[in-house]
Write a structure and sequence with these properties.
single chain, alpha+beta, 4-stranded mixed β-sheet, 6 strands, 43% helix, 13% strand, globular, binds zinc ion
Length: 253
């Protein structure tokens, strides 16, 4: 990474860590039964990404053979990274379960919203969400530090997620008549898009109404934040050649 790229990457990181939602995983009580216990690897990767520490030895990505520098950021945007798909599913499941807890049954991968799979939203509610209309949502987690996003991320935190939300709205415009569509864009740095944050506040309020737990919103953000960090760790470690195992990934902490 040249000096300029290094500077804007660190600027993007600093802007992101100043956003409260990016560090919610730090506030979670590590409890296995609640799914809030992070593995040592996930925790190390999350801390390293947050403070800008080198995470691994430079190597070639085992998935796509592109070079991975010492910060390991390539894994966060590698098109072949397994971590991205697992994180996408995990974030969706947190949203679905939270809706169910808030007495709004919801399903993932709904049939019948579109004949084209690529234009099917990630989930829909089975009861009305707002103004008599059901909820449809679609999750994405874009990499704050990818070449295509880092200029935006270094200008304003959450800018890459905001753009991703706009794209989602255009893509799912066909749902507008029947559903209340919410684009839920997160970033690998942990920040969220404005529409996503607004939706999460509303979901947190409804969770509080349903359960009486005043910290529902906080707990929701913590669970999502942890899933983002788990996905980051998996994305980074999956670039390491298997023959080297995780020994090839060293942490400077
Ligand atoms: Zn790769």
């Amino acid at each position: 990474m040249n000096t300029f790229a290094n500077d804007i990457t660190h600027r993007a990181r600093l802007l992101a860590v100043a956003q409260p939602e990016s560090g919610k995983w730090l506030n979670a009580l590590p409890t296995p039964s609640l799914g809030t216990l992070m593995s040592d690897e996930s925790f190390r990767a999350a801390v390293g990404l947050r403070i800008g520490a080198p995470l691994c030895s430079p190597h070639l990505c085992t998935d796509c053979r592109l070079p991975v520098d010492k910060y390991g950021h390539h894994g966060l945007s590698c098109k072949k990274s397994a971590g991205r798909f697992i994180r996408h599913s995990a974030l969706n499941e947190v949203i679905r379960r939270s809706l169910v807890t808030a007495n709004i049954p919801a399903v993932l991968e709904p049939r019948g919203t579109s004949d084209v799979d690529e234009r099917r939203p990630d989930g829909v509610s089975q009861l009305p969400w707002r103004n008599g209309r059901r909820l449809a949502w679609d999750v994405t987690c874009v990499d704050s530090f990818a070449l295509s996003n880092v200029i935006s991320s270094s200008t304003k935190a959450g800018e890459a997620a905001r753009k991703a939300e706009e794209e989602k709205r255009r893509k799912y415009d066909y749902l507008a008549n029947e559903y209340d569509f919410e684009p839920l864009a997160f970033e690998t740095s942990g920040v969220t898009g404005p529409a996503c944050l607004k939706f999460l506040r509303e979901l947190g309020r409804r969770l509080k109404d349903a359960t009486g737990e005043a910290r529902s919103y906080e707990f929701l953000l913590q669970r999502l934040s942890i899933e983002i960090q788990r996905g980051n760790a998996l994305s980074i470690t999956s670039t390491v050649p298997r023959s080297d195992g995780l020994n090839a990934v060293y942490f400077v902490l």
